[in-house]
Design goal:
The protein is of the alpha/beta class and about 200 residues long. It has helices spanning about 20-35, 75-80, 85-90, 120-125, 155-160, 165-190, 190-200; strands at about 5, 40, 45-50, 65-70, 90-100, 105-110, 135-140, 150. Strands 1, 2, 3, 4, 5, 6, 7 and 8 form an 8-stranded mixed β-sheet that branches.
Length: about 200
Amino acid sequence: MAYIIVGLGNPGEEYEDTRHNVGRIALEAFRKANDFSEWDKDGRLNAFVSKGELSKAKKSGKITLVEPETYMNKSGVSVKPLITSAKKAEELIVIHDDLDLALGKMKVSFNKSSGGHRGVESIIKAIKTEGFTRVRVGISAASAKGVVKKPKGEEAVNDFIIGKFKPKEMEIMKKVAKQVAEALEMIITEDRQKAMGVFNQ
């Protein structure tokens, strides 16, 4: 399978290190860990693209990493030219932030609804299927007992997701990014179900 891995976020310096950009943060960690090519702007996709292979995945062929430059709610524009069928969608992995998970947590899922995430919704509408893999990365605060504490109201949510990580939060995020890279490797070299069993704790 020739996997396509998309890291969702917003382009530009002002959005670097924001909670809404964890897809990009995690994708960059994966790129560096596996020595993929430097980012190259693809005008057709309106995205930055990197390519490489995993030594453990002899049958995977080239893996394409994609960072849309379209802003979050139009992410599907960059993905649509690459995913031309439901069968091709099974080779798609999308990494994105998730308010329903606490910072420090991540989950692998398949064939799920957008859950209100506008970037994911844009991709589903563009490729006309939910049948792709998602790596959901938590960004919310949590109580001592692990209960997720999400901001309430659209304005509060928007302010929160485009807010930058504090230094201590970024340290946690870097650890999660390593976990995401490990999950991606397991999905590609073994299978999605095994990755779910290992990482959806």
